[in-house]
Write a structure and sequence with these properties.
The strands form four sheets. Strands 6-7-8-9-11-10 form a six-stranded mixed β-sheet, sandwiched between helices. It has a five-stranded parallel β-sheet with strand order 2-1-3-4-5. The protein contains 14 helices and 15 strands. It is of the alpha/beta class. The C terminus is likely disordered. The chain folds into three domains: about 180 residues, inorganic pyrophosphatase (n-terminal core), CATH 3.90.1640; about 120 residues, Diaminopimelate Epimerase, Chain A, domain 1 (Roll), CATH 3.10.310.30; about 120 residues, CBS-domain (Roll), CATH 3.10.580.
């Protein structure tokens, strides 16, 4: 058996080098130390199915015939590998970008002063024309970018840049790198986690143990996902959601993490206009109170079950409308007179469009006010049925960035519900 391992508190360069070694030596097991850098731990929590790893305790060291050490050269830096130190007949390979002589006597490998150990292994993978998946290329690029500061640190070499370019050609995803290659856990993150734990609450929804924590934060804070992940693990719940509101900007950042295969956090976040994977997701919501967001999350987990209050209870009727041939000047006057921001456009009893104040931004000349509404209206109209819940109306509004929904029953327009109607309903739910 052959294994690839690295130093304690492994960072992305160390982790990526281990994975690269398993690609370079097919059949080698990736053995990670117990302690990992928080960024790596967060990455693995989402992508562990793509990168199977083992702990030293899970490996029969007595069966190891080849040891591949990456990003380290001393036995003291490895996790629980002492049993191999005096093993006779053990082949040891060391790949390291640190030139200091360590205590591991290696029979092969590569030591060279480059920006990242991953670079050395990628160069060999390229030479041997090994195939990489986009996610493998992404992880290896993360290793190089982390130790070279995105190729800006003084120790960066041309070899690092060549390796990075080769990985980008293999569709390494920079969006994923931007998510995980950030300061993992600062004093600010520590303070936020402490505040969350002070007000932690657990609840059970459809058999899932979950926690939703609402917290006001001042401005944008990077990498809150790591805080939510730690919060989830500390509370030992199936899933946790952090609702981080910024009152000054009127928006909420929702971050979800799941430790259960039965609860798809990504699906919940996609329903809220965001995205993610089954174990992780996020969404940014504008103009919603944190308590309303919490209620929305609960309902989505429950399966979008219809609420006791329906859209028909909130909608306005009768509905003012205009025809497609109406002049823009007439519409402007109607909007002012009625104090509304938009109108459905009706042609022979069918909704053919929506016209709103936002559409008037394209009217740049006074002569254009004589143009018909059909020249400026939005032809793609989102509608909703009267029996749907306010939460489902909010979901459509957020997903498609619309401020009003015509309420249609059996093809007939019977009312209209606006973002203000929905938000007023949510605010009315709040205790005094």
């Amino acid at each position: 058996m052959q294994i690839a391992t690295t130093h304690k508190n492994a960072d992305f360069d160390a982790f990526a080098s281990v994975i690269a070694a398993t690609l370079l030596f097919p059949g080698a097991l990736a053995v990670l130390p117990k302690t990992l850098n928080p960024n790596v731990k967060a990455f693995l929590s989402i992508h562990k199915e793509l990168f199977p790893t083992h702990t030293p305790a899970e490996v029969d060291l007595g069966a190891v015939s080849r040891l591949i050490v990456v990003d380290a050269g001393s036995w003291s830096r490895l996790d629980r590998m002492e049993a191999l130190k005096e093993r006779k007949g053990l082949e040891i390979l060391v790949w390291d970008h640190h030139l200091e002589k360590g205590s591991i006597a290696a029979a092969g490998g590569c030591r060279e002063a480059v920006g990242a150990t991953t670079t050395l292994l990628v160069r060999e993978l390229k030479r041997k024309r090994r195939q990489l998946t986009p996610m493998q290329a992404t992880l290896l690029l993360a290793g190089i970018y982390e130790d070279t500061g995105n190729l800006t640190f003084p120790a960066t070499t041309a070899a690092d840049a060549h390796a990075a370019g080769w990985l980008l050609e293999r569709r390494a995803d920079l969006n994923i790198l931007n998510t995980f290659l950030k300061p993992a856990y600062s004093e600010k993150h520590k303070a936020i986690l402490f505040r969350m734990l002070q007000h932690a609450r657990r609840t059970k929804v459809k058999g899932h143990r979950i926690s939703i924590n609402k917290l006001a934060v001042d401005g944008h804070i990077d990498n809150l996902a790591v805080v939510v992940r730690m919060y989830t693990e500390i509370l030992n719940v199936d899933a946790a959601f952090g609702v981080f509101s910024d009152p000054a900007k009127g928006r909420c950042m929702v971050i979800g993490r799941s430790l259960s295969e039965a609860l798809d956090v990504g699906a919940v976040m996609r329903s809220m206009g965001g995205g993610g994977h089954p174990r992780a997701g996020a969404a940014q919501i504008k103009g919603a109170h944190p308590d309303a967001v919490e209620q929305w999350i609960l309902e989505l987990i429950q399966g979008n079950q219809q609420a006791s209050v329906q859209v028909s209870d909130l909608m306005s009727f009768p509905v003012s409308s205009v025809g497609p041939a109406a002049r823009m000047a007439e519409v402007a006057m109607l909007l002012r007179q009625k104090g509304i921001t938009g109108l459905p456009v009706i042609d022979e009893g069918r909704i053919v469009g929506m016209i709103s104040r936002r559409d008037f931004r394209r009217v740049r000349k006074e002569s254009q006010l004589d143009s018909p509404v059909k020249a400026y209206m939005s032809a793609e109209v989102r509608t909703i049925e009267p029996g749907k819940s306010p939460m489902q109306a909010a979901q459509i509004m957020v997903k498609h960035d619309v401020g009003r929904l015509p309420v249609v029953d059996n093809g007939q327009l019977i009312g209209i519900v606006t973002r203000s109607d929905v938000m007023r309903y949510f605010y009315d739910l709040l205790p005094d």
